[in-house]
Amino acid sequence: MKTRNVLITGLGAISPLGLSAEELWKGICEGVCGLKEITAFDASGFECRIAGEAPEFKVNKFVPKYHRKATKLMSRDIQLAVVAADDAVRSSGLITKAIDPDNVSIDPERFAINIGSGMISCDLPELAPAVAASLVDGKFNIKAWGEEGISKITPLWLLKYLPNMLACHVGIIHDIRGPGNNITLAEVSGLVSVIEAAQTIDRGDSDAALAGAAEAKINPVVLMRQQLLKRSFTGSCDPPETACRPFDKNARGSVFSEGGGIAVLEDSDTAASRNAKVYAQIAGCGQSMSLNKKFECLEPGGKGLEIAVTAALKDAGITAAEIDLVLPHGTGVAGDDAAEAAALSRVFGTEAQRVYFLPTKSMIGHCGAASGIIDIILACKAMENSYIPAAKNCEENISGLKISDKPIEKKINYALCCGYTFGGQTAAVVLKNPEVK
């Protein structure tokens, strides 16, 4: 039973479209595509040589002086979370130790943190000398690794790549001392982080929380894995902005990217006491587990996703007929898109031709763990502005879902964000417009 209303009062993001949630929203509204030729490393040997890279930034700018030494131990994933968290806190109007240590506006012990992560891959230049020293007759030798190879790695190396370090660094920066967790559920990490943070507030264990996820998928190890699993885009990348085509007849795979998203969640009484701006209410949440034996793709029919979405609607106390906007997972992998569309079609029935579906990966790429929270941020902005941006790269829609290539001005009372992983986890979150009583 819900005992408290959980509101979203702050939005923060870093994406291929910019260093803030506002830049992300502006880019989506203008139809800007953040997918370009990879510059982070030499990708000439890859089938897909495009990705969504975030604009250049210096993480020190987003870290107070008392924590800057620690930036040496921040992987790219951690840095993305730090930037998104800074944006979220500032947009919420909350004052933490990092913003102004003399005027902190929230009890650190009543402030929770849930930040999800994906599979954090190390930078090859850090690991390559150690591996090279561990080769015997051209093959990796564990004895050589223990005797010589491991000594080539700095003793603190692992601290850059532990999944809990995203929440750890952000928590230290903003002096968050309440309940905390790191969710490592691949593509639904951001969604589940929001769900768990909302439940923490709902049961009275905190008054506010930072919730979201970050992942840097522009890494040769990560991209090679996606290529071998046949998930990444194949074909001509010219022009790059037409490559990722969720729910389109000519879909040829995902284009991967890096990004982070953080939302500030608050109990309604706490938010009201400081007259906080409210973007949305967390109205309902749902999760499921339904593993496909062929793990590299979503199960045919998307039964697990159907369960999660149905549970979220039930939790919100509404029907599919009351949803105005859906931000689906929509990867651009044809088989997975078909399975997701089948699941959503079963949930929405004839309403699938009334509700607007906005797949976003055609413009920002697949941000892995951050995908769901970035969609939540965009849903909040759409709700705030009564505006649904145009979908891109879906000229031949074969999903049976209503996807508009033109922007729509429309009041959004309820929005749904949903996602799935290749491990079988699915999650869905229903957002309610604060103007709806």
From TrEMBL:
GO terms, molecular function: 3-oxoacyl-[acyl-carrier-protein] synthase activity
CDD domains: KAS_I_II
Domain Ketosynthase family 3 (KS3): 3-433
A GO CC term assigned to this protein in UniProt: cytosol
Database matches in InterPro entries: Beta-ketoacyl_synthase (IPR000794), Ketoacyl_synth_C (IPR014031), Ketoacyl_synth_N (IPR014030), PKS_Beta-ketoAc_synthase_dom (IPR020841), Thiolase-like (IPR016039)
Keywords: Acyltransferase, Transferase
GO process terms (BP): fatty acid biosynthetic process
EC number in record: 2.3.1.179
Top enzyme category: transferase
Family: Belongs to the thiolase-like superfamily. Beta-ketoacyl-ACP synthases family.
The name this protein goes by in its record: 3-oxoacyl-[acyl-carrier-protein] synthase 2
Organism: Limihaloglobus sulfuriphilus
Name of the encoding gene: fabF_1
